[in-house]
Structure formats: C-alpha cells, structure tokens
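Person: I keep going back and forth on a fold encoding question. Show me how you would write down a chain together with its backbone fold. Please set it down just below, with no commentary around it:
Helper:
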Amino acid sequence: MDFNELEAMEGLRWSWHSWPVSKPEVASLVIPLSIMCTPLTQLNELPILPYDPLNCSQCSAVLNPYVRVDYPTKIWVCPFCNGKNRFPESYIHINENNIPAELFPTYCTVEYHLNKRGSDQGSAPSMNGALGLRSNSSSFTSMSAYFGSSSGSDWAGSGLVVGPAIVFVVDACTPEEELEMLKSELLHVITRLPENALVGLVVFDSMVRVYDLGFSECLRVVLFNGQREVSSEQTKQLLGLYHTTQSLGKSSAVQRKDFLLPVSQCEFNITSAIEDIHSSPQVMRGHRPLRSTGVAISVAVGLLEGCLVNTGSRVMVFTSGPATIGPGIIVNSDFGNAIRTHRDLNNGYAAYYRKSSEFYKQISQRLSDSSIILDLFDCSLDQVGAAEIKVAIESSGGFMMLGESFASERFRKCLRQMFDRDDSGNLKMCFDATIEIVTTKDVKISGALGPCTSMRKMNNSVGNKEIGEGGTYIWKLGTVTSKTCIAFFFELGDEHNIQSSSVFFIQFITRYRYGNMGIRKRVTTVSRRWAGKHSPDIAAGFDQEVAASVMARLAIHRTERSYAHDVVRWLDKMLIRFASKFGDYVPEDPSSFRLSSNFSLYPQFMYYLRRSQFIDVFNSTPDETAYFRLMLNREGVVNSLIMVQPTLFQYSFDGPPIPVLLDVCSISPDVILLFDSFFYVVIHYGSKIAQWRKLGYDKDPSHENFRKLLEAPDLDAEQLVSERVPVPKLIKCDQHSSQARFLLAKLNPSVTQNSTYTDGSDIIFTDDVSLQVFIEHLQELAVQG
C-alpha cells in the first residue's frame, strides 16, 4: 500500500488504514486512530464546481461518490445515515451515462465555488447541458471554467467590493536603522496589495497611535495609554466606531471608517504615515525601551471588530523587543531584571508569565469570534514574548517568524511571500475557514491538534473522550494554506454490531474565503474497512511516519501541563507497549526481537523525538521553544519528520549525493554534508575540503570537478530555502568550527568521549545514549511481556 499515492489523491494520511471493531483492540494499538488532514492540499486533478453542494437532509453530508443512486426515481441514499434524499429538479437529466462530477468514482475530493455570498447551501446548478454534469464521453473542462461572482459587501456605499483587511502594527522602539528597513518593506507591501484591500496602521512605544487614514489635511492619530488595558467596547468608543441599529435590532453600517480604508482611497495617506514613523527617543541608561505591545495588539483587534470586518482580516505585528509596560508585559524596563527562562517558568519565578498568557488567551477568543489572524514578525537578538503570544497566533492560524534583523533576507522573503498574488490579481490568502467532519455512526470524533479552535458544536458524531480541541464536529481556522495540516483523532462508538470487512466513511468539509472574498467549499469523502481481531490488515495498514507525527503533537500538547521528563517517560512507556504488541520475539530473549519493515523505523523516530528541541528545551529560550512547537503543530507529515529526524546528504567525488545516517560517523574530512532540520540548513565541509577551498583550488580550471562539488550542495540548499516558509536559516561551516555545533547537536552520538575505539572519527562529548543503546534497552523491556 503506497501511502504517498493515497495522500496525493485524498490529502489525508492515516495512522491506521484498517480499524479494529472493538474498543479493547483499539486501545491495544497504542497509537490512536488518527488522520493527518491537509484540507487545501494541491491535488493533481481537482474538479471545480460553480454551484452549491447538495446536502443530505438528515446528517448534512454532501453528495459524494459513495451514495447509492436510483436514477429512474431520482433518489440518492446517503452512505453516512442511510437516509433517502430526492434530487432537485435541476438534476433531472442525470442517468448512468451522465452524472454530476461529485458522483464520479475517481473524485473523492471536489471544490465548490459558491454563487451566493455567505450561502452554505443553495439550489443546484441548472442542468441544461454539460454544466455540473460529467458524461462518460465529455471532457471536464466545460464545467471547470468558472469565474467567481463578486462577493463581499461594498465599503461606505462606494460600490467597491471589499477585499481582506490588514492592520500593520509597528514597534517605534526599533532602532532607526532597522526601522528604515522595515518601513521600506512595508511600503513595498502596500504597492503589492489589491486596490480593494483594506489597510490600517497602528504604531506603538509607551503610547499606542492609531492613524486616521481618511484625514488628508495632516497626519492625525488617536492616542491610547500603553499602560492601561483597553476593552473592545472602549476601543470602538474612543475611535468613534459606533453603530446604528435597524428596526430588527441588527447592527448596520459603521458610521466612521477612516481608520480602515481601501488602498485605492488611502494609498497616499498610509504611505505618508509609514514614512513619518521615527524611532522613539532613547530611554534612560540601564533600562529597556517602554513597549506596550499588548495594548497595541488589543487596539488593532478592536479596530477590526469595530469596523465589522468579520470576513477575513490580519493583524501583523512587527517588533524588535519585549513588552515592558501594560497588559502582556514580559519583563520590566530595568536591565537588572532578566527575561524569563525555562527554569524560571518551571520554578514559578516568571513574574508576568501567567497573567500575560491569560491576557493573550482572551485576545485569542476575540480573534476567533471575528475571524482575525494574528501574525508576529520578531526581529531581535532578545526575546519579545512569543511564548506568551503563541496561543493567540496558533489558534488564529497566524504566522510567526523569529529573526535577528529587519534587514535580513529571511524577513524580506517571508513577508513578500505572504503577499503573493494569483493570475487574477487576488492575494493567495484564505480567511474565515471552518472544517466540519461527518462520520458513520460507529465512528466518533475525539478532537483535533493544530491551528484550529473548537466551536463546541455537538452532535451524535462527537465522542466522550476529548483530545486537544474536542467536544465538537466543527473547528474554526482564521486562515488555511496548502501546507496547513491538522491531526484529527477518532474513537469507536458504543455500537457492538460492527461487521469485520464492512466499510465506514468519513467526510471533511472545508469552507473558506479566498483572497477575492469569494466563498469556497472543498469536500473530501473517504472510506476504509473494519478489520477483525488478529487481522493482518491492521498491521499492513500502519503508517509509521504518521504515527511519529501524531505522537509528536500529542507530546508537545502534554508539555503544556507536564514537565519535560514526565513527557519523555510517557513516550518511553508508549514505545515499550508498542514494541511489545507488534514485535516478534521469544519471551525473555532480547536477541530474538524483530520488527517488520512497516514498524521498524518507528522506534528510531521516537529516539530522535525524545532528544529534539520540542521536548529537550536545554539551550533554547521560551520564545524559541514556542516557535518550534507552533510550527510542528501545523506542518504535514513530511516536514514534521524532518523536524524530528533531520535529513543528511553526503556529497563526494565518488558520485551523486546520497543520503547517509544521521550519525557522527557520517562526518569525514573529504566529503560535504547537507543537513536539513527544517528550521535551519547546514552545509558542512570536511577538513580537507575546507583546506582545498581556502587554497583556491575551486578557481583553478584544472580542478573543475572540485568546483562542481562545492556548487552542488549550494544549489540544493538554495532550493530548500526558497521553497519553505518561514525561510530557514542557512549556515555554512567547516569541520571542527564553532558553527558545526548546529550539526553535531542533532547527530546520533555513536562515538563519544567514553568510546574505546574511535577509528579517527569525530567525537561528540555527551552523556546521551546512542541509538544502538536505546534500541537494546527497548528490546530488553519489550520482551519481558
């Protein structure tokens, strides 16, 4: 079974492709029943349907290839609830040779571009001809050529269709040189925005300034005290964002919108405002700048709430230091007080951490209610408070970048890639997304882990057990990209009549707004089979890569309420149970222990997870750890595994690059290593290679092969860096240099200072056990039964 081919068709990766029929058997699997779902994965062939989906009247499942259709009577039977539904009159022309695309057997995923703004379900398309239907002899192109109707409301009665709203929140405490680079990039972003995109500007230091972009006589701002918490209602009142009510009691248009305007109406004003930003005066000696980051974020969110922009918006924060005053404070301004470390957090010595985290949890709820995304661009050599802000960024699906300077190429690439536009000139952004799951009665939903928020909507598909964001069958996402991946967890219901080899179904319904504010709905319907006790199908359907990714997410979820050593102990316990369950061995004989090929890599993944930066936070700041965990919790299976167990390629004169073991023994004087850990890419030159390069042999025409050897890893590294968001840090180092620590820290320490025979290889000074010793201990514990 090729799991990658299935993922290319479905956008899903399953930990188990065949599910047991009883709860005790599910519990014995150790790895939970889970699906890694990438809702907007790029598929080879995706039918685009320019009409609203047809839903089951009983369970709301969308019409799909697994329904049973009685063509003479125009009735279809839902596979989820077995309810009978009648096709509307617009489907009158369907028959065995002319069927809608959503019924075609090869299309388990289809996407609807809804005609009605905000419509969840409407009438089916007119079936006069080929629109929406697929004949066995006709092509699909006739129905995929759809131009989305304009959607969104007009702004201030101007007739302009509103695009996404973006509020830039700029730290004025940034040094002047850095601030100039930031302003240059923001001005570049303004030029790339569509004319209907709404923009706002908030600048903060010890005070928060909201710019009135509709006032053209001069630069006019509204000031907020950076030390006082401002509620949503207070923000609206101070900005004059009041509403009039209609006779039905519903809120109508906002009376004042000068703080948030389309680019076409305020391009000159916002350009002038950005150019006018200057670095705040230097603070007194021995003190940090006074930053009110928390109030600035709260005011920016209140601005969007007050303007009723609940169809998709972003708050983009650019900062270069920690918040030192007001709600969300990280540390006070006196340099005599150090910024909190992991030890401070564990021992309860971080004075502001708990209160600031609670403040940002409240912000995250406001973000979710108004479909606002929070992004953080941290360009500083110090911590800025990303650990506290993480909950708001993650729940809204926002972007986080930790850098060193606004002048860096990493910052420029990250910011510019976010504002890429498609062929129609729309931003490649998605907003206001929800994911709904429909299951057959025997399958219950436990929860989800990823950049989503539970909407707490219950039905018969929701199970009693909660994992992560549970207690619902619908989740809210501020945004979703083609890379966004969410882990969903399932359990068995209370049914006792599940038949082995029978089929169960799961449907994922992802609704979102594209950059043109048009509503789209992607529907993926899949089926798998139940497997009886001791069925070989269960083991054959195990995906060890997904299992490692799922366990990594569960582990970092546990770290939020448990100490790291307790999480490591839990991982070890689960691994021993797993090995004891699926290993082949003679009891009490470790030398007889074997794992089949589709299980054999899983212990290795767990070894590297235990010593990864997600669990072992030594030498990492709380901000860095928050960033690492946030990225792991949203990336797909492949990228998650690269984070846990990085890849290592060897370049030599002997031939093309080859993958080698992530082991210290792979280091050699006459080879180049390309190391990829997702967050940084390292090109490691062996001592001989480095010496030849310093002597300039690569510039000698008689050493053409050496020049090509040096170029090969550079080209591959550039490709890795260019394709990944956020852009990883590129490090070039020589063997035995200080920068080589980025590579050595991740290698298996098979040769240490305690090794008897080193054979001239590099040595890692560590007390960690090697992978071989780890596996030996695992075998001893697994065979004890």
